[in-house]
């Protein structure tokens, strides 16, 4: 892999389902994610976020535009890309242990047995699940299962980690813990992350940069730098003036009528309908 300043380049990406007279899900998306950056995409429900991620990850062939990963065109699913989905219960194998789940994609990438074990143990330690390596996913809480999904993605040492609403199916407290876990692991592994979320506050809390999408067919209405520094805290960051200002700006761009003032409790966040 060539280490360039741009990890992901999306240029004029569009996708129409169902042929010429079908449904235009995304129109003309152009943006870049820099190497080492954590970028969030926030947009209204149904605007085409999943379609965009499918196009970027090579799961579908977009009907227009180009995607390049570290300078190479994406054509099919790149082996150095990993995706974490919202629905952890369907993405983990219930009959495999936690460790075997984490090792699984390494096997198909040709990583030898000893290294698979070493990498799995390293990432499981990082997500705080060393003690659960021999358990099965169904023996774990939802938040723990999503930690396993994150560990599995990290074990592949992806050039780019794509995350599709990864924390949307867990309770508020667990969500904050997982957000902080993501901030810690991206620092540890120097990861480049593109995360899609409905949650304005989450996008600002996590990101170095937020791309705000329009309604379907999606285009980018704003590319916002988030000058909150690398160290973030669920209470003090969220009550800072910069955070509150950015939150209102994104809500305005998305035309969210109920954004109001910053939440008194970190558990209240702004969801886009
Ligand atoms: N396989 C498909 N065939 C036809 N239309 C589709 C298909 N997948 C998605 N769509 C349509 O494309 C549009 C964008 O869908 P997509 O799932 O990408 O949006 P989204 O922003 O991820 O939605 P949500 O926020 O609800 O998860 C929607 O109108 C959807 O109905």
TrEMBL record:
Keywords: ATP-binding, Nucleotide-binding, Transport. One of its GO terms (molecular function) is ATP hydrolysis activity. Residues 8-240 form the ABC transporter domain. Gene3D superfamilies: P-loop containing nucleotide triphosphate hydrolases. The keyword Transport applies. SMART domains: AAA. InterPro entries: AAA+_ATPase, ABC_transporter-like_ATP-bd, ABC_transporter-like_CS, ABC_transporter_ATP-bind, P-loop_NTPase. The keyword Lyase does not apply. This is NitT/TauT family transport system ATP-binding protein. It comes from Saccharopolyspora flava.
